């Protein structure tokens, strides 16, 4: 049951401030965002809500640096921020922003890795605003993501905005 819950998109509604303009105004509401991890090495994609706090399965025991240079034969991953909304037809993908993550394959307790925190924050925010930022993904990773969305979340994919579908095709 726990795995079932982790593999579902976060589709909620509600204003945490109650609309009164008090504490929390100006913060990002993460009710409708889900991080999808794309692992091209294993040819799989899955939702990992721990990525919201930089604690996804691929980020644990990794010390991230802002440059790729010192990494030894790194594995490539993508954290894809998927924003959803609900219309009369049902839930749909509203925005999507992919962020590159690399993790060294060295045998070390704490592995070196690369990710750009500003890119993650910006792409998450832009996906919430309906932007589609996936053009920098490699074709194999895009295919894995599309297959995952179609097979595991068919209704969500079917109802998605044309910009999202076109960006991933």
TrEMBL record:
Superkingdom of the organism of origin: Bacteria
Pfam families membership: YwhD
Region annotation (Disordered) ranges: 1-20
Protein name, as recorded: YwhD family protein
Species assigned in the record: Salimicrobium album
